[in-house]
């Protein structure tokens, strides 16, 4: 039997079966409230949040005791945090991880995006691919929606070297980049080790 909790932080609509799945979306926050009827356009996500028991929570305050967690996994979430927020999350993950246990971070690979840009020379496609564009909201509805949902574009981008350096700086050991489908996690179970493989990089470290 596994010794600790396994957590998918920022799971969105891709929770990992058998894990503790956490997301900070408004949909998850309201899924079990009387206001859920306001989310008619998100009905499928509301049902998934209820069915798969996705819990509302933030990456910078994980609801676990020190050393209680066996694995922290996060896919395509870190790039939505600014540099300060990213450090806070990675330190919070280190707090909840038991000594010797692993974190696995999946993010869009900046190196792949740059390679595609170099091949195509299409600057607009590059900016769209890295999601650093952020059109200002227009009109009352968009402004209110932006205020409620928050900033959903990318705040920072990483390649394998820069993400590995950040984890190392924050005290993680045995930091390494893995090919899609490979991991140092013992018995990964239902964890998707190839999540968004065409655009992603995979870095792990030990607390």
Word description of this protein:
With 207 residues, this protein is α/β, with parallel strands linked by helices. It has a single domain, classed as 3-Layer(aba) Sandwich (Rossmann fold). Helix content is 33%, strand content 21%. It contains seven helices and seven strands, in the order ββααββαβααααββ. It has a seven-stranded mixed beta sheet with strand order 3-2-1-4-5-7-6. Helix 3 links the parallel strand 4 and strand 5. The longest helix has 14 residues. The protein is globular, with a radius of gyration of 18 Å.
CATH first level: Alpha Beta
Our count of helices gives 7
The helix/strand class is: alpha/beta
What is Rg? 18 Å
Order of helices and strands: EEHHEEHEHHHHEE
Helical content (DSSP H or I, runs of 4+): 25-40%
Number of domains: 1
Beta-strand level of the residues, as a percent range? 15-25%
Q: Total number of β-strand segments?
A: 7
CATH architecture: 3-Layer(aba) Sandwich
Strand ordering within the main sheet: 3-2-1-4-5-7-6
CATH topology: Rossmann fold
Question: How would the global form be characterised?
Answer: globular
Uncertain runs:
146-150
Specify the oligomeric state: single chain
Mean pLDDT, all residues: 87
Keywords:
alpha/beta, globular, 7-stranded mixed β-sheet, 207 residues, Rossmann fold
Q: How does the SSE layout of this entry go?
A:
Blueprint lengths: L4 E5 L10 E4 L2 H5 L12 H9 L3 E2 L12 E7 L7 H14 E12 L1 H11 L2 H8 L8 H11 L10 H10 L3 E6 L21 E7 L1
Parallel strand pairs: 1-2, 1-4, 2-3, 4-5
Antiparallel strand pairs: 5-7, 6-7
